[in-house]
Specification:
The protein has 133 residues and is mainly alpha-helical. The protein has a single domain (27-126), classed as Helix Hairpins (Orthogonal Bundle). The chain is built from three helices and no strands. The protein has helices spanning 28-54, 58-69, 82-126. Helix 1 (28-54) crosses helix 2 (58-69). The two termini are 42 Å apart. 13% of the residues are buried.
Amino acid sequence: MNVQHGCPFSVPRRFPIMKPLLFNWSNLRAQLIVALSALVGLIGLGTVVYHYLEGWTWLDSFYFSVCTVTTLGYGDLVPTSEATRLFTAVYVLLGVSVAFTALGIIGASYLRRSQEILLNLQANSTGAHRKPQ
């Protein structure tokens, strides 16, 4: 154990086996992929659960999952069993958070790309050349 100044946690330890698992979260493309994957996975999970718990068709289950995650709530389909209502309560809390985060990341990606295009157009009109980041 490395002890400096009486504290056993002064020197950070390196874990080389963890390096391939680390992700560069500052990369907007990586965030976009993770957010969309989480959103698709969550809607898929809801579709499967509603299909088996409520006995709805796959299309109705998908429709209800999307309406629930996006907070549309038309009211044409409603959970009838206690298990489905309990699942829906947790699903809404998780789903809305994931959906709005994913939509925010998609919006940020679009705005960043638009800004890069405008900066390149501006640089080309002045004769300077700007490399995208």
